[in-house]
Write a structure and sequence with these properties.
about 475 residues, alpha+beta, Arc Repressor Mutant, subunit A, 3 domains, nine-stranded mixed sheet, three-stranded antiparallel sheet, 16 strands, elongated, binds zinc ion
Length: about 475
Amino acid sequence: MADAVEVVIGLEVHVELKTESKIFCACSTRFGSPPNTQVCPICLGHPGTLPVLNLKALELAVRAALALNCKVARYTKFDRKNYFYPDLPKGYQISQYDAPLAEHGWLEFRVDGRMRTARIRRVHLEEDAGKLMHDEVTGETLVDFNRCGVPLIEVVTEPDLRSPREARAFMEELRAVLQYAEVSDCRMQEGSLRCDANISLRPRGATDLGTKAEIKNLNSFRALEKALEYEVARQTRALERGERLVLETRGWDEGRQVTVPLRTKEEAHDYRYFPEPDLVPMTLDPEWVEQIRRSLPELPSQRMARFQAEYGLPAYDAGVIVASRRLADFFEECVRHYPHPKTVSNWVMGQVLGYLNSRGLEPEELNFEPERLAELLRMVDEGVISVSVAREVFEEAVSTGKSPRALVEEKGLEQLSDTGALAAVVRQVIEEHPSPVRDYRRGKVKALGFLMGQVMKKTAGKANPQLARRLLEEALATEREETP
Ligand SMILES: [Zn+2]
């Protein structure tokens, strides 16, 4: 059955725009403030108040649309989307319905080494709702309106994604593009990037869409991929049994790793959309839009191509590094100070990402200057420290903020590269271990490993391994000549 069936996925992504103030009032958008401290009569929906559009929000939305290759509308307007929910004090959300800000875009992304493209149906502006907090202990539900009125864009794709992996790869690329364009910080754990996924199955070759389920509020890449994998299995089983699927909204239960039905899906008419009478329709000046287009920075796909051409990085390395603008900036700055791109890329992908992942940090939270990494790598090249010591120094330098060179000096981690001193240690080891020395002389090459181990032990791991090995081999050869 698996091959006879095609998976069809479309995404609706909500992205919080990086503005200082909310979309229709002057309240702050800062994350993490005490509940209900960033509210006013406008975002609380008091009668008689009027919204005023934040120009910065409009500009960021246009930036996002252009970065996603959309056609920005000349004429656009706001509409009211009516529904009742306790986190929505006005009883409606100001959104856009039939005249969205932008349409007909596309985004190219890489999945398993292949390039794929998904079309973007539309990008529109809207306001966020508040946040409900359920108290497990008292059973009460509290509401925080700080987020109410924070500017959002909704990015809606065409149903062009064909697997959970593709959906995830698309989202990762989308996040990278929006971060590069400085439209949003896209912190999924803070809810500034959230995703709903529509998924249905159909017989391969069919053009009609099957009955879809919409999975709400997927707030991590992993949750997105896992929830979709679960849905593929669930829908496949249902179709195999000849069950009829219903159009419904489902939620992802992280603890049980299953999707659960929430409600049968609303249709657009349930929202009774109508033009927002308190905001005038807008006609965007094409020259202003062009100005924004010209101000867009190099985007991830362009940067990836450049990293391959300019630094000779493999596609895999380039892809991993450009996925985060901060990481890519870090890489380039480091290469400026230490012009060995592949070595730097290995360290960025290995040590730097390893450090961040093990602590659940984002690249933006890395508190380490690229010059410091360059300094560390130079010390390895100069033979001052070994690669394994360099790895330890890196960890410590990142967590303490100290310079790698200072740490090496402070802890006496320099390699023992003094030929005279090392030769003395080698002589001592040979005297103390006559049996392995004899073994080696009789051609048992493995004995050299044991003797090397003794040299490292006597020097507390600081002997320069290449030099120690050479001295040991030379000494053993001499000993052999001297032995009758
Ligand atoms: Zn307000």
